[in-house]
Amino acid sequence: MTHPNDVAVGIVGLGGIGSHHATKLTERGANLVGGMDVDADARARFHEEFGVPAYEDETDLYEDCDAVLVTTPNRFHEAYATSALSAGLDVLLEKPLAHTLDSAERIADAASDADGFCMVGFNNRFAEPVQVIKHYQDEGRFGETTHVEANYVRRRGVPGRGSWFTSADVAGGGALIDIGVHAIDLALYLLDHPEVVEVSGDTRSEFGGRDDYAYVHMWGDDAGPEGFDVDDSASAFIRGADGSTVSLEVAWATNRPATDEFVVRGTEAGATLDRGSGDLTVHEAGVGGGHHLTDASVETRDGDAHAAEQATFLEAAAAGEAPSINTVEEGLRVQRVIDAIYRSAETGAAVRLD
């Protein structure tokens, strides 16, 4: 059997997240064989930092690879993921699956016909506190998990205005498709991926397009409000066919304290997870010895979710078997919810998905 670190892996898209993945790969001793980007400066930086070839054409990279990570802007996910699958490679595709639902469905179709597999980059699932919650759920400690309050809210955190993140044509949306995709996926994962039957939501663009947008930190450079045509916050309610529900709050910018809190509610117990800090508390109640409420703090190791995600991907590629987690079907389910929230915001009405 091939060792995971012997899998020849390349990276398509050599910006910030591509370089982050390359760093994690080299830290684990993986066989990083090259990268690809249409930007010459990005190729030069990547070659200098990681000492491997960087190509302008993806087909040159694919010749050396068994697997690739696709970390391009959303609009280009389909082109590179489908070409890699057509070349027989395994693909780890950064979230979201695509910039539109139609594009995501084409990726899923390509993956279903391919010799390789497509895994979607929902790294939060691999965080150790999340895995503890899943373990308790599997043990039955929570009873039936019925609702998740999912929050991914920044007080001021619009990515570099003028970058592809703030362009609807390239990103497909704003805060909802950028960070909301993580919150939706994590909530559905904690509910064991129910069939979603109804979505109601609204999106807002209240801060990113202002000349007086006030911020302390910004990821990337600020080119000002011109061209900012995406949402900077969203609220939604999601119903599953099994009666489970999700309440969602997402924001790049809003006038309230930031929060990354996920509250999991079950019939026998619940939990509060701070996704950012990793703090986890389990909430229980009982009558033994007298009626009482218990809040138990759970301490875990400081795991690296991206590294664990890469390990799962490389192990699957080495074994020649698609992973059972982060499947393209799950990514498509999340994309359908995002699309439904945007449609609900446009129409002012709930959207049925059944």
Quickly list its features:
single chain, 354 residues, alpha/beta, Rossmann fold, Dihydrodipicolinate Reductase, domain 2, 6-stranded parallel sheet, 33% helix, Gfo/Idh/MocA-like_OxRdtase_N, Gfo/Idh/MocA_Oxidoreductase
Basic shape = globular
Enter the CATH topology name of the largest domain: Dihydrodipicolinate Reductase, domain 2
SS-based class: alpha/beta
Order of helices and strands: EHEHEHEHEHEHEHHEEEEEEEHHE
C-alpha end-to-end distance:
43 Å
Ranges where pLDDT stays below 50 over 5 or more residues in a row are: none
User: Would you identify the CATH H-level superfamily of the largest domain?
Assistant: Dihydrodipicolinate Reductase, domain 2
Largest sheet: 9 strands, mixed
How much helicity do the residues have?
Answer: 25-40%
Radius of gyration: 21 Å
Tell me the strand order in the biggest sheet: 14-13-12-11-7-10-9-8-15
Proportion of beta-strand residues? 15-25%
CATH C-level of the largest domain: Alpha Beta
CATH architecture of the largest domain: 2-Layer Sandwich
* Structure summary, number of beta strands: 15
Pfam families: GFO_IDH_MocA, GFO_IDH_MocA_C3
Domain Gfo/Idh/MocA-like oxidoreductase N-terminal: 8-122
Protein name: Oxidoreductase
InterPro entries: Gfo/Idh/MocA-like_OxRdtase_N, Gfo/Idh/MocA_Oxidoreductase, GFO_IDH_MocA-like_dom, NAD(P)-bd_dom_sf
